[in-house]
Amino acid sequence: MSENTKTRRITKAQLDAGVLAAVRVVTGFLFVSHGGQGMFGWFGGVDGAGGTVPFGSWPGWWGGVIELAGGALVLIGLFTRYAAVLCSGAMAYAYFVVHQPMALHPISNMGELAAIYSWVFLLIAVLGPGALALDNLRRRR
User: Fold this and answer.
1) Residue 30, exposed/middle/buried by CB under 10 A (0-12, 13-18, 19+)?
2) What is the pLDDT of residue 133?
3) Is 115 within 8 Å of 94 (Cβ atoms)?
4) Beta bridge partners of 32
5) Sign of the C-alpha dihedral, residues 77, 80, 86, 92?
6) What's the pTM?
7) What is the rounded distance in angstroms from the CA atom of residue 90 to the CA atom of residue 45?
8) Can you tell me the mean pLDDT for 11-26?
9) Cβ proximity of 23 and 124 under 8 Å
């Protein structure tokens, strides 16, 4: 290496923003996928044969709407904090209303996915979208 070669150092703030963006994008993508599974039968649907949640049913269909719309907003980083709070609340509701009555522990009641989504979305709501988010463009104006 020559002496003229400059090494670009990534700051801790840049690394934090990048990692948070990666978590946001992956979580949003998986949440959209989960919503599409229930609403449109993606990935085998809710029954493994392409079945969907009945239109307008509570809480399944409305949860799917939140998963699709909220997950998409989180994925692209638009109105991220609001969408993440909504998604976190929806998953907390799913855990306590659907899963928790079966058993207390998330592994026993099959609610570990709802629990982890709820906490990750709460984290995104508190910390913000990170890098590569449309919210960052909105703030510059």
Assistant:
1) middle
2) 96
3) no
4) none
5) positive
6) 0.89
7) 20
8) 95
9) yes
**Which H, E and C letters describe 14-33, residue by residue?**
HHHHHHHHHHHHHHHHHHHH
Check residue 103 and report its DSSP letter. Answer: -
- The residues with which 51 forms a beta bridge, in sequence order, are 45
pLDDT tens readout for residues 56-95: 999 999 999 999 999 999 999 999 999 999 999 999 999 9
Residue corresponding to tokens 């998986």: 30
Instruction: Give 9: exposed, middle or buried? Use CB within 10 Å, 0-12, 13-18, 19+.
Output: exposed
User: Which residues are CB-neighbours of 126 under 8 A, at least 6 positions away?
Assistant: none
| 6, amino acid identity | K
